[in-house]
Amino acid sequence: MNDLFAQADRGLEQLPLPDADVRFQRDLYPAAHCNALLRELIDTTDWRHEQITLFGRQHWQPRLVAVHGDAGLAYTYSGLTLPMQPWTPLLAQLKQDIEQLAGVRFNSVLLNWYRDAQDSMGWHSDDEASLGPAPVIASFSLGATRVFKLKHKTRPELKTTQLALTDGSLLLMAGATQRCWKHAVDKSRTACSARVNLTFRRIMPAS
Ligand SMILES: O=C(O)CCC(=O)C(=O)O
Ligand SMILES: [Mn+2]
To answer: What is the pTM of this model?
Structure first.
């Protein structure tokens, strides 16, 4: 596997991936602030443990989730529609800071709480029609570092890439990234503490 982490060490840096626009920045906030954000999000979010249907069978998702966003929007993925909760002051502030870096506006955020090393996310693309053909997705990580893997959908000669998403880091995915690549967060082979990931998105209102 390629490890691009060493190349992405200062500022919002573009990763050298074909058919993709992926940028990475470490340390959006000081560590103490990230720690306070993590605690507050874990303690105050209305977390849900959901079941999804895979190949006709029901499974518990190996993580907890929540969605916040503008009134009137609905977010559906893997056949699951999560209730959209309103912006909290904390999430609205994060959204504003991240919009400045990303240069785009978001109207929703999906939160994932990986409680320990056993929690994970399987291979997928954020390619629901409601996100449009070339969505900009801003992924902000807090807490334990977990490995984010990227795999091209049709070019097996491109090795799976891995990127360590550290506490306080921001990953931007844009352009053809969702159309051409899948991503995943595996279970961790070593014990780890909690991680919360927030993916800010722009959902197109249903017409
Ligand atoms: O936890 C992560 O870094 C990935 C989250 C993700 O892919 C998603 O919410 O769609
Ligand atoms: Mn995703």
So the answer is: 0.93
